[in-house]
Write a structure and sequence with these properties.
CATH superfamily of the largest domain: Glutaredoxin
Radius of gyration: 19 Å
Mean pLDDT: 92
Oligomer: single chain
CATH architecture of the largest domain: 3-Layer(aba) Sandwich
Structural class: alpha+beta
CATH class of the largest domain: Alpha Beta
CATH topology of the largest domain: Glutaredoxin
Helix content: 25-40%
Number of domains: 2
Order of helices and strands: EEHEHHEHEHEEHEEHEE
Shape: elongated
Number of helices: 7
Distance between the termini: 41 Å
Strand order of the largest sheet: 5-4-3-6-7
Number of strands: 11
């Protein structure tokens, strides 16, 4: 199955390190990050899970819940969690889905047979409170993910959902944003009282409207 931007994230039930969940019910009214790992006790995954655990205060500020997935069973996840805490300096503080029959992995298209017929690739899905897929990123199994970038995109999504703007290349919170072309200059005078700099009629930079 191919899950694309704008699709409703497929719902599922699964056992996790935090108990049995229904995905949509577990998300509630929050944003979610669902990310897959090839298998337990692998070095790159161990560093990733530790880093996501350290990011929990940042996720909490943005109303985001994280949940991992590996095709190994629950008892393996629980043993791996001890290694994560020992080597990464932060205990696991979010659930990992046990997916030994690969039901969730197949539902979300996390197995790419031409890359690996058995194990999941490093796929990330960002889901909004309406349960829509807002971001998908797929990494090869050998490359650790940049979760700072994933956090940056969530900042962009949450900003652009609230204002008629988009964010330019390498944007970070607090930097100038772009007024979307569909907003006329007359309307922009009301929406963006701080004004803007027009590099071209279609490229108008304005200060971050939240500041």
């Amino acid at each position: 199955m191919s899950v694309q931007l704008g699709d409703i994230a497929p719902d599922f039930e699964a056992d996790t390190t935090d108990g049995h969940i229904g995905f949509h019910e577990w998300l509630g009214d929050k944003w979610g990050i669902l990310f897959s790992h090839p298998r337990d006790f692998t070095p790159v995954c161990t560093t990733e899970l530790g880093y996501v655990a350290r990011l929990k205060p940042e996720f909490d500020k943005r109303n985001v819940k994280a949940i991992g997935l590996s095709i190994d069973p629950l008892d393996s996840h629980k043993k791996w969690a001890a290694d994560i805490g020992e080597t990464q300096g932060t205990a696991l503080n979010f659930p990992i889905i046990a997916d030994p029959d690969r039901a969730v992995a197949k539902l979300y298209g996390m197995i790419h047979p031409k890359h690996d017929e058995v194990y999941t690739v490093r796929t990330v899905f960002v889901v909004d409170p309406a349960k829509k897929i807002r971001l998908t990123i797929t990494y090869p199994q050998t490359a650790g993910r940049n979760f700072d970038e994933i956090l940056r995109v969530i900042d962009s999504l949450q900003l652009t959902d609230g204002y008629s703007v988009s964010t330019p290349v390498n944007w970070k919170p607090g930097e100038d944003v772009i007024i979307v072309p569909s907003v006329t200059d007359e309307v922009a005078k009301t929406k963006f009282p701080k004004g803007w700099k027009a590099l071209k009629p279609y490229l108008r930079l304005t200060p971050d409207p939240r500041n």
